[in-house]
Specification:
The protein is an alpha/beta fold and about 270 residues long. It folds into 2 domains: about 5-125, 3-Layer(aba) Sandwich (Oxidized Rhodanese, domain 1); about 145-270, 3-Layer(aba) Sandwich (Oxidized Rhodanese, domain 1), CATH 3.40.250.10. Helix content is about 30%, strand content about 10%. It is globular and about 50 Å long.
């Protein structure tokens, strides 16, 4: 399982590395780091989703290379054998992306978890928060990329004919069906040929916790028919909410390794 509950985390605050990966859509005019400095779960380390993505490229949130990842994680003081709990205050979407990043770079999946309900649930339960910035001791993190967990545009195009895997899009039905314009400029409306759609928020409750296992099974069965399939690739607008579906599917399929199209519609939909 890739989720932990707030009760568990409160009892284990000193035994894990905690990451605050709060990130917000530009139009919200919110700043995740400023909010982190104002209050966060005790001992949490901030992970900047924008700054810790590939630079000098027009596509947002693309994975960095292993050298850059080693430097990022080492500066956070995280070691290869650390148990990591990730949360955010932004609808769990950015914590799921951070979770995927660690999986992609070879951190033991049994040691990487998302806090179910995130910071919103933590504060609503009146659990302890802090303004103290965690002092970090630089580590020597060594990643091992699992390149099979990410698909390129070329592979996505080839799959339209080969049909080796199914693509599920996490965007809204309206965006998927091309009924409304894309929020990002320079992109056409529509979807990848033969792809399916499960809006990521279908998997999330109002309190930002994930739906229960039976509910998730029904959601994916209605889309796929067979929830034992392993060859599933998730896509979205820019590779972030795809990771919500990847985590949700991993909760109901123990044999599934999360796999995404990193460029997503930000790349595929370029006019």
């Amino acid at each position: 399982m890739s989720l932990v509950e707030t009760d568990w985390l409160e009892k284990n605050l000193q035994k894990v590395k905690i990451i605050d990966c709060s990130w917000h859509m530009p139009q919200t005019k919110r700043n995740g780091y400023e909010e982190y400095k104002n209050q966060h779960i005790p001992n949490a380390i901030f992970f900047d989703l924008d700054n810790n993505s590939k630079k000098n490229i027009s596509l947002p949130h693309m994975l960095v290379d292993s050298t850059a990842w080693n430097r990022i994680v080492s500066k956070m003081g995280i070691k290869n054998d650390d148990k990591i709990i990730i949360y955010d205050n932004s609808d769990v979407i950015s914590s799921c992306r951070c979770w995927f990043n660690f999986i992609y770079f070879g951190h033991n999946p049994e040691l990487v978890h998302v806090l179910n309900g995130g910071f919103n649930k933590w504060t609503k339960e009146n659990r302890k928060v802090s303004k103290d910035l965690t002092s970090l001791e630089i580590s020597d993190y060594k990643s091992s990329e699992l390149e099979e967990l990410v698909k390129s545009k070329e592979t996505i195009d080839q799959n339209i004919e080969k049909k080796l895997f199914k693509v599920i899009d996490a965007r809204s039905k309206e965006r998927f069906e091309g009924k409304i314009p894309e929020p990002r400029k320079g992109l056409r409306s529509g979807n990848i040929k033969n792809s399916l759609c499960i809006p990521f928020n279908f998997c999330i409750n109002e309190d930002k916790t994930f739906k229960n296992i039976n509910e998730l099974k029904n959601i994916f069965e209605n889309c796929l028919g067979n929830i034992k399939e392993k060859n599933i690739v998730f896509s979205c607008g820019s590779g972030v909410t795809a990771c919500v579906l990847a985590l949700a599917y991993s909760l109901i399929n123990d044999n599934y390794q999360p796999c995404i199209y990193d460029g997503s519609w930000a790349e595929y939909g370029i006019i």
